[in-house]
Amino acid sequence: MSDPTAWHDRPDRTIESVQPRGSAVSATLARMRAFTRAVSRSKAGMVGWAGLTLIGLMALFAPVLAPQDPLQQDLAQRTGPPTISLFGLGPHPLGNDQLGRDILSRLIYGSQVSLLVGATVVLLGGSTGVTLGILAGILGGWPERIIMRLVDIQLAFPLILLAISIVAVLGPSLPNLIGALALTGWVSYARIVRAETLALREREFVTAARSLGAGQWRIASRHILSNIVAPAIVVATLELARVIILEASLSFLGLGIQPPTPSWGRMLADGRDFVATAWWLATFPGLAIMLLVLSVNLVGDWLREYLDPRLRRAHG
Predict the structure, then answer these.
(1) SS in 3 state form for 173-188?
(2) 3-class SS at 84?
(3) Number of folded domains in the chain?
(4) Do the domain assignments include residue 227?
């Protein structure tokens, strides 16, 4: 009698390998069109994706888009007002800071810091949290108890206080900032993924795979992981917004990105002493942080509805 698991164990007999290449391309294009239609049907989703795409492109093409060198000082134009008018843009559309540096250029380059820190922290924290959550849900017993007690211990500390303590001990730098934020960001993933894994391991397809001789690691990688991608993505968008705010907060306190590297949080801190006389120093960095976090939250809400079939049916 042939082995019933032989089909799954042969790498050359996957579903993708028996499909024509043209059908795979057509399926990809169809999914892209469906994704685009889903975005176009949601005004909040369109606004969120548009804002996130705009800021992403701004960070990617910062050397091309920035009108000035973000580090160039001109004390003769310190706290210069914005030069936007009905007749066009002046040399410094958003004004100059307390050292005469162009605010627009610093905002454009500052977007690189926010997105780099946010994406790296989400990647590190997400991979750690998802791995530990799956292990806790699949193995159970003492591994689950240890992982969940670590979660409880970390949740007992305010995350911002824990991040401040880590950066204060290790010193303010970009690697230390990313490490501190990643260390505080894995808990949400672990809790959600563990709950999903506990529910999935009792489902019929997992029971069938176990009855066919599949081991724990095969079940985790082939059946559990593919079914927790959607909730993990939603958690990642929420964590991205939180990380952006935390990075700006630590930079505001002087524990994040150090001068002269442009950072929205640091620009906000530099402008607080000039609110009464030069409002643009703090207003524009604050608006940039607000727009980025709002865009990420709108995308996260849209993804939650898009990836959950029940919510999609409820919204038509």
Answers:
(1) CHHHHHHHHHHHHCHH
(2) strand
(3) 1
(4) yes
CATH number at 106 reads 1.10.3720.10
Please state at what angle helix 141-155 crosses helix 187-200, rounded to 10 degrees.
150
- Alpha carbon distance 102, 72 (integer Å): 8
Q: What is the pLDDT along the chain (316 residues), one digit of tens a residue?
A: 434 444 344 444 444 444 455 566 777 777 788 778 888 888 888 999 999 999 999 999 999 999 889 999 988 888 888 887 666 677 888 989 999 999 999 999 999 999 999 999 999 999 999 999 988 888 878 888 999 999 888 888 787 888 888 888 888 888 888 988 888 888 989 999 888 888 887 777 777 877 777 777 777 777 788 788 888 888 899 899 999 999 998 888 888 888 888 999 999 998 988 888 889 999 999 999 999 999 999 998 888 888 765 555 544 4
The answer to whether residue 18 is domain-embedded is: no
φ, ψ for residue 306 (rounded to 5)? Answer: -70, -35
Confirm whether 16 is domain-assigned: no
The single residue listed with the structure tokens 């230390």 is: 176
Q: pTM for this one?
A: 0.82
Q: Residue 62: which domain range? A: 44-314
Helices 21-40 and 43-60 meet at what angle, rounded to 10? 110
Q: Has residue 24 been placed in a domain? A: no
The encoded tokens of residue 124 equal 């590190």
Q: Which amino acid is at 238?
A: L
